[in-house]
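Bumping with the actual sequence this time:
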Amino acid sequence: MNIGFIGVGNMGNPMATNLIKAGHKLTVHDLRREAATNLLEMGANWANNPKETVPGNEVVFTSLTLPRVVEAVALGENGILEGCKRGSIYVDLSTNSPTTIRRIHEQFAKKGVIVLDAPVSGGVYGAAAGTLAVMVGGDEKVYQRIKPALDAIGRHVVYCGPIGSGMVCKICNNLVSMGTGVLLAEALTLGVKAGVDLGTLADVIANSSGGCKRITEKFPRFLFKGNFEPGFATALAAKDVRLATDLGREYGIPMEVSNLIDQRHVEALHRGWGDLDSDAVAQIQEEKAGVQLRLV
């Protein structure tokens, strides 16, 4: 397929790389041209703005940071919509607000342009390996048309329902993941302070009913090594948790525990940790408990 791809940062670049490796031809754009150097060397074409990623391409993907950024790229001056014609397809791979992507969908529909949401999960490692989970919302027939491209970036590609459904699934997933990180930090500092070796405790939890990817895959790469180079940045984790609590307020859902997770991430941001990996949030619990969770 001929594909436009906007946003080739930590997640977008490896996804775009895997699309090229799978034989797709890309036109790419980013705020920083140097971010696309490797893709251009692999044969991708450069677009000077989002509008220029559209002509001649069957689908345009975005992988961006914040809902307001997605909206500006999609609907703003020299944005994706300006370059589209009836029948064009736009797919947002970002973790976005369901309300925002539905609003974008409505605006694009006026011009006969199709919008899908397809947020991904699996982090930078999964993006590089092409093993991401991809959660898709929108027209199912269009999803089937573009699935070969999605299969190049993800191992578990799932159709979730109407527009916005992928975003809802991703927000719920990330809320669980970030909440698990906060709870695990409490449990691990408790166990270590009570006299159990961290490696032993982590092994027991990983192979018991408390087992999860956060303790088997994430913590060993980041927290346990004292490595806070993202990864998945704390600022993005905080954004995703806030998307969840905002969605809860929108639908009148009680979110008591989620609000506590939200506040822990806000505290991490106030400490200046936004650019660090999301495991940095655990340092708040380490400080409060007087225990450092490191395996060397």
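The tokens above came from a reply further down the thread. The domain at 2-163 is CATH 3.40.50.720 (Rossmann fold).
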